[in-house]
């Protein structure tokens, strides 16, 4: 496990705070005094990486220090999340959480090496992007109801791809099965990219994918989009109906991203990070850049983001128990 960048003052912070020698306000005034890192639990080139770099570039200019992306993929996001959780709470390690690290993972792993709620302090919600139900274009279906009818006509004969057992893609598939009563087999792949490749290669009939990940294949006609998993149409796919429009009003799952720091980070630093992050996310150029990736920017207070994380864990846990989803 890579250690945080060394900084003598950071080592002294906890003892000085306990002794009352340095106030949070004083720490915020001297912070940041060295480079900052944003840990991500996904691979370079992933949606988490892309959004982290956009935010990091702007925060770096605002804070006056370099910000590097420290990618720690592995174990379905567990590895990188643990690295962030165990880092020094000195404001020099941030974590770009998402719906896997702080939603589905706590719902499907019997034991995690981190506590998604208690080991982190929220900074701000950053953005979200819907999933989209896509099918092999050779299938004789043009909407969700036709797809459901086709599957019901041949129960157990069709299959769908996911990014792995316990992934959000898996949750989307199982939620569709529970809401419609269809019998379709789950084929877990080692990541979203391999799952998309499986669909393009005809190995599976359908999958749910992040709009940002599969938008180009939809526009090229390599897959057919049937519905997005949010109540309003996606900006990148304005002609694709929503799940409520497709007859499934309670189907809503999004891919989301938000910034956290290790628990125990001084409140003044958390407040400064929130203020600077909100300022960055409210910039027109940042919103435009992320919108081109299909991302809906939505900065928040730390309290609002904390409530969102708790609600997501509860929602994913309910789905996991009903469908018997467990991580391998």
Keywords:
single chain, 328 residues, alpha/beta, 10-stranded mixed sheet, 10 strands, disordered N terminus
Write the layout of secondary structure elements.
Blueprint: H1 8-19, H2 24-30, E1 36-40, H3 47-63, E2 67-71, H4 78-85, E3 93-98, H5 100-108, E4 120-135, H6 144-153, E5 159-162, H7 168-180, E6 185-188, H8 192-200, E7 206-210, H9 211-219, E8 224-228, E9 254-262, H10 267-281, H11 284-291, E10 296-297, H12 302-323
Parallel strand pairs: 1-2, 1-3, 5-6, 5-7
Antiparallel strand pairs: 3-9, 4-7, 4-8, 4-9, 4-10
Helix pairs in contact: 2-10, 3-10, 5-12, 7-12
Structure description:
The chain has 328 residues and is an alpha/beta fold. Helices cover 42% and strands 19% of the residues. Mean pLDDT is 90; it is low at 1-21. The protein has helices spanning 8-19, 24-30, 47-63, 78-85, 100-108, 144-153, 168-180, 192-200, 211-219, 267-281, 284-291, 302-323; strands at 36-40, 67-71, 93-98, 120-135, 159-162, 185-188, 206-210, 224-228, 254-262, 296-297. Strands 1, 2, 3, 4, 5, 6, 7, 8, 9 and 10 form a 10-stranded mixed beta sheet that branches. The longest helix is centred in the C-terminal third of the chain and has 22 residues, at 302-323.
Proportion of residues in extended strands: 15-25%
Number of separate helices: 12
The main pleated sheet reads as: 10 strands, mixed
| Poorly predicted runs of 5 or more residues | 1-21
- Structural class assignment: alpha/beta
What is the string of SSEs from the N terminus onward? HHEHEHEHEHEHEHEHEEHHEH
Q: Alpha-carbon distance between the termini?
A: 23 Å
Percent of residues in helical segments?
Answer: 40-55%
Q: Tell the overall outline.
A: elongated
Integer average pLDDT: 90
The Rg value, from CA coordinates, equals 21 Å
The count of β-strands is: 10
């Amino acid at each position: 496990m890579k250690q945080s960048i060394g900084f003598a003052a950071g080592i002294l912070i906890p003892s000085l705070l306990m002794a009352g020698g340095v106030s949070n306000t004083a720490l915020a005034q001297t912070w940041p005094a060295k480079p900052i890192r944003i840990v991500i639990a996904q691979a370079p080139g992933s949606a988490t990486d892309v959004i982290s770099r956009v935010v990091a570039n702007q925060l770096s200019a605002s804070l006056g220090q370099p910000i590097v992306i420290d990618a720690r993929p592995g174990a379905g996001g567990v590895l990188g999340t643990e690295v962030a959780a165990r880092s020094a709470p000195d404001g020099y390690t941030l974590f770009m959480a998402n719906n896997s690290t702080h939603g589905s993972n706590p719902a499907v792993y019997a034991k995690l090496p981190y506590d998604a709620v208690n080991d982190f302090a929220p900074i701000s919600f950053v953005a979200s992007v819907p999933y989209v139900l896509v099918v092999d274009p050779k299938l004789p279906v043009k909407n969700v109801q036709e797809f459901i009818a086709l599957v019901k006509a041949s129960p157990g004969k069709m299959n769908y791809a996911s990014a792995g057992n316990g992934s959000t893609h898996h949750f989307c598939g199982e939620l569709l099965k529970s809401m419609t009563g269809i019998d379709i087999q789950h084929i877990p792949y080692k990541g979203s990219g391999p799952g998309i490749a499986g669909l393009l290669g005809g190995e599976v009939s359908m999958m749910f994918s992040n709009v940002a990940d599969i938008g180009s294949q939809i526009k090229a006609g390599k897959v057919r989009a049937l519905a997005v998993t949010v109540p309003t149409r996606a900006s990148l796919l304005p002609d694709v109906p929503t799940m409520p429009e497709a007859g499934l009003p309670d189907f809503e799952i999004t891919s989301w991203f938000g910034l956290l720091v290790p628990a125990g980070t001084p409140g003044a630093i958390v407040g400064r990070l929130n203020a600077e992050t909100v300022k960055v996310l409210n910039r027109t150029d940042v919103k435009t850049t992320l919108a081109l990736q299909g991302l809906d920017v939505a900065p928040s207070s730390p309290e609002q983001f904390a409530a969102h994380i708790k609600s997501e864990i509860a929602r994913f846990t309910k789905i996991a128990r009903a469908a018997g989803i467990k991580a391998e």
